[in-house]
Specification:
single chain; 460 residues; little secondary structure; Pectate Lyase C-like; 4 helices; elongated
């Protein structure tokens, strides 16, 4: 009689079954981990699977990355001359400062890629996807951009000389114009009001070109010839020029004025008419007799500037600071002083008319110091921080007037009614207040040195 088999034992069978139930999934899990984190490397090679890899500053001339997955890979400063990236996925790859001279980038996905300051001389970019790519300061000389959509690409500072484009190349109006200028020359173009901000225009001939109101901020004009160019109203802020840039003396002075912040400039008699001096620092500048007709002085710093006799007809002084400036004899006929700060400015002898746009309080202050205000009804008027030094206001009604911070040095206020007036921080040195009504006046921090007050009056 045969003995019972090994598996006939119910206990053994139960143990084997338990081992299979628990051990098989564990074995499969360990096998999966080994494949993914170990043996998987045997099947994953770079290229083609190179997403996120770093090749910063490596020597990779003529390297073959055709069709590779290089999403978010980094090639900062790498030498990639003649490298083949055709058909590669370079989504958000970083090529900042890389040498891609003669590289094959045909049909690549370069969406969001960073190519700032890269050298793409004679690179082949035909049909590549460049949506959102950043090509600031990039060299594209001789690069092939046929069939490429550059409508959403930042090309500030990009060198487009010799770049090959065709009717299928999509460029914004601005950059197509820049391409035409650097490849065909500036002469013959009417660039009135043209947007050339950030454009690489080095070495371009603009002789005699109409560039009135052109936006040239941050453009590169090194080595360019702008002799005789019409630059009235052209914005030259942060434009790059050098000793080889040919620029008429007037416009070189304008460039220096807006790009080199300097106090106490000596510009007496200077011709700055029709110049765009937006934001210029002219603090304490000597501008006596300067020609500034139709100049743009928006947000300019003219604090303590000497503008005696300056011609500012039609000038734009929107939001300019003219605090404590000297405007005697200045001509501001038709000028725009909207939101300008004339705190403490000397308005005596200033010339303007109804075509001059200026806040009511400054115009009223001008009328007082130039035409007098004896017996004038100025109840409740707003004259804070106006320079009324030497104003003739005998018997004027200034009840409730706001004269906070006003300069009333040497003013004649004899017999004036100042009931309830605000004279906080006002300057009343040597002012004549004899017989004035001073009930309820707010005097905090007012300077009354040597002022003549009503007999028996005591400051509160």
């Amino acid at each position: 009689m045969k003995s019972p088999g090994f598996l006939a034992d119910p206990i053994v069978r139960a143990r084997l079954w338990l081992a299979l139930v628990i051990g098989t999934p564990l074995l499969l899990f360990l096998l999966y981990v080994a494949i993914v984190f170990g043996a998987g490397d045997l099947f994953r090679r770079c290229p083609p699977a190179c997403a996120g890899e770093s090749y910063d500053r490596e020597q990779l001339a003529a390297a073959n990355f055709a069709g590779a997955d290089l999403r978010e890979a980094s090639f900062v400063g790498a030498h990639l001359a003649g490298a083949d990236f055709s058909g590669a996925d370079l989504y958000f790859a970083n090529f900042q400062g890389a040498n891609l001279t003669g590289a094959n980038l045909q049909g690549t996905n370069l969406r969001g890629a960073l190519l700032t300051a890269a050298d793409l001389t004679q690179a082949d970019l035909r049909g590549s996807l460049l949506a959102g790519a950043r090509l600031q300061q990039v060299i594209l000389s001789g690069a092939d951009l046929r069939g490429t959509d550059l409508s959403t690409v930042s090309l500030a500072g990009a060198d487009l000389r010799g770049t090959i484009i065709d009717e299928r190349t999509v460029l914004t109006e601005k950059w197509r114009l820049v391409w035409e200028i650097v490849n065909d020359g500036g002469v013959g173009h009417n660039l009135t009001g043209a947007d050339l901000r950030g454009a690489h225009l080095a070495g371009v001939d603009f002789t005699g070109v109409n560039m009135r109101q052109a936006q040239l901020q941050e453009s590169d004009l090194t080595g360019s010839n702008l002799t005789g160019a019409q630059l009235a109203g052209a914005a030259l802020q942060q434009a790059q020029i050098d000793e080889t840039t040919r620029l008429d003396p007037k416009w070189r002075l304008v460039w220096e004025t807006v790009n080199r912040a300097q106090r106490n400039r000596s510009l007496a008699g200077a011709d700055l008419s029709e110049a765009d001096l937006t934001g210029a620092v002219l603090y304490a500048a000597d501008l006596q007799g300067a020609a500034l007709s139709n100049a743009i002085l928006t947000e300019a710093d003219l604090r303590q500037a000497d503008l005696q006799g300056a011609i500012l007809r039609g000038a734009s002084l929107f939001s300019a600071s003219l605090r404590d400036s000297l405007l005697t004899g200045a001509n501001l006929t038709g000028a725009d002083l909207s939101n300008a700060d004339l705190t403490g400015a000397v308005l005596v002898g200033l010339v303007w008319d109804d075509s001059t746009t200026v806040a009511d309080k400054w115009r009223l202050g001008w009328e007082i110091v130039n035409r007098g205000g004896a017996g004038a009804d100025l109840r409740g008027r707003y004259l804070s921080f106006v320079n009324l030094a030497g104003a003739d206001l005998p018997g004027a009604n200034l009840a409730g007037a706001d004269l906070q911070g006003a300069n009333l040095e040497g003013a004649n206020l004899s017999g004036a009614d100042l009931t309830g007036a605000i004279l906080v921080s006002a300057r009343l040195v040597n002012a004549d207040l004899t017989d004035a009504r001073l009930e309820g006046v707010q005097w905090e921090r007012a300077n009354l040195t040597d002022a003549r007050l009503p007999e028996g009056f005591q400051l509160p």
